[in-house]
Each structure stands twice: as C-alpha cells, then as structure tokens.
C-alpha cells in the first residue's frame, strides 16, 4: 500500500457472516464461528503492521442471547479458548487487551480468561485490542446513566465529554472506521455513541473469508473519504 494513505487510528469490526459461511459449506454453524475466530490473528497482524492503534471486535451482542443455547455455549467456549491461548502471544507483541460489555452473563470460565488477559497485558503500550462480548450500545448507555446517578455528580456538570467517561470505552478514542462483514447494512446496536461520526464500510464478504486483500480495500476506501464532522 502507498505510504500517503490515511490510516485510521481506531478500527472496529462487526464480525458477521460466520453462520452463513458454514451453511454455504454444509457445515454446522459452530464451524463458521471457529473459522471466524481463526481469522482474527492475521487481520490483527495486518492492522498492526499498518499502524492502526486500536482495534475493537464485536463478537457477541446482548441480542445474541436469543440464539439456541447450544450455539451460545459453543461461541463462549471458542472465545474462552482464544482468550486463554492467544493472550500470551499477544502480550509478547505488546498488545493491550480490554473487554467492553456486561461481564454478568458470560460463562465464569470466559470471565476468568478475560480478567486474566486484561491483567497480564494492562501495561502494554502497543496495539489496544478491545473485545466486545455481551456488548450492546443501549445497555452501555443505560449502564453509564446508572453509574453517573450513583456517583452523585451534579447534573449541570454533565456534558458529552464528561458523559463519555461513564461508558465502557472511557479511555478509548472514538472509532474512525467501522467495518461490517456479512452483507447486512445496519449497526446492530454497536458503539452507537462512539461511532456517531465514524466512517462505515460494508462488505458482503463473510467474516471467515475477510482476508488481507479485503482489508486493504477497506483501508483504501477509508483513506479516500472526506470527514467533515459537520463542518465544511
Ligand atoms: C457473527 O456471525 C457472529 C455472531 C453474531 C456471534 P453470525 O453467527 O451472525 O453469522 P450469520 O449472520 O448467521 O451468517
Ligand atoms: C451483529 O451480528 C452482532 C455481532 C457480530 C456480534 P448479528 O448477526 O447478531 O446481527 P443481526 O441480528 O443480523 O442484526
Ligand atoms: Mg449475523
């Protein structure tokens, strides 16, 4: 890629299309989730090499509880195994791991591996990798309102900047680019506050097939966008 391209600081992914990827191959849906999890590593490496500093991965939404229990358990199992297997390697590469979403409801094993990975990598200064598990944008805003009210802070001090400190993403910069794979053109409750001025890139490619070449296309497309933030 040319060096003159604009590189987004924070890229967030809606990892969609795992189930259809599997169905297309007459495989169980869980095989699609497995292939999806395996696709994370090469994509992260590419982003890191291109100077992206923050990557957020939407892997389980607060609405995904509506799926069959068996699929939910299978997804948690995969996420738990990727967390515990990859954390050390990510740590070696200076990656800082964070989780956004509600911990309550996640399996105890997954909670444990998330806590361990966060602790292990907390002082790393390389890429920040944010896992959105049991994440919902509306739930996040409600949780923030509850925290704000519980803090007893006078309401007249509250502005957008102050409110953002109560969100799960308190210390993260706003998202520059949201990439959604799998063909749907919607946000599905993802980062509704933080992506208010993000650029969106939608592709029909299923997440397990979303490779470096597809990512390069997305980054090139982003670098041709003109962001105005309401100005001229
Ligand atoms: C995305 O893939 C992963 C999760 C939402 C957990 P899907 O499972 O939604 O895949 P499709 O949309 O059915 O193909
Ligand atoms: C969005 O995908 C959530 C995640 C990728 C975690 P879904 O497959 O759940 O979204 P909808 O139901 O098609 O909107
Ligand atoms: Mg889907």
Helices and strands, with pairings:
Layout lengths: L9 E5 L3 H7 L4 H10 L1 H10 L4 E8 L7 H24 L3 E5 L7 H14 L6 E8 L1 H15 L8 H5 L12 E4 L18 E4 L9 H12 L9
Helix pairs in contact: 1-2, 2-4, 4-5
User: Widest sheet: strand order?
Assistant: 3-4-2-1-5-6
Overall average residue pLDDT: 97
Low-confidence runs: none
**What is the CA-atom radius of gyration, in angstroms?**
18 Å
Write a structural description.
With 232 residues, this protein is an alpha/beta fold. The two termini are 29 Å apart. Strand 3, helix 5 (108-121) and strand 4 (128-135) form a beta-alpha-beta unit. A six-stranded parallel sheet has the order 3-4-2-1-5-6, with helices on both faces. The protein has one domain: Decaprenyl diphosphate synthase-like (Undecaprenyl pyrophosphate synthetase), CATH 3.40.1180.10. The chain has helices at 18-24, 29-38, 40-49, 69-92, 108-121, 137-151, 160-164, 212-223; strands at 10-14, 54-61, 96-100, 128-135, 177-180, 199-202. It is built from eight helices and six strands. Residues 15-20, 60, 64, 75, 182 line the site of one 3-methylbut-3-enyl trihydrogen diphosphate.
